[in-house]
Amino acid sequence: MSTSRDTVLARIRHALTDIPTDEQPADHPVRRDYLHTHTPDDPQALLDLLAENLTDYRALVHRTTPDALPALLARLLTDRGTRTLVVPAGLPQDWLTETTAGQLPDDGTLTARRLDDTDSVITGCALAIAETGTLVLDAGPGQGRRLLTLVPDHHICVVLAGQVVASVPQALPLLDPARPQTWISGPSATSDIELDRVEGVHGPRTLEVVIVQ
Q: What fold characterizes domain 40-212?
């Protein structure tokens, strides 16, 4: 008895019957002369658009300067009531000079159960995409393992102005496809068949983004 998989594969084989066996994909290059961005080449406009789209996804967006960053992070953690803060390896220590919460450095051994007992995590990012309101993490320094940003209920992500690009076509060439990427647009959320939105099911219930310019 044929399965759906058999049916699909049979249709693919039939569709390829008139293709010469020596033909290669490079013989038919794909035209890529489309616009790579719909955003003006203006750094301030990029930051404004990123903030607007992140807010639309229900992320909490803050804007600050490098000098004011430690005080802002400390205030956000205090306002949240954070007692235990997960700190990925490579996170700049000068970001946390005013933080009073207990810091839990990640040495690669923190389990999901241990992380579930923590309050917050602060990370950097690989880059951010303004047109889609997306943060991209690739487990680089200051970002840590994917687990760190999925289990704690509160995630603060710091985005430097120079990390913001306009569009996905501009972002992809800057990323290493061999690295474990996490693309984030707003806090974790899902909806049931009645479209009742529930946050915090597949990741942090609260996402705060700090844009540093």
A: Rossmann fold (3.40.50)
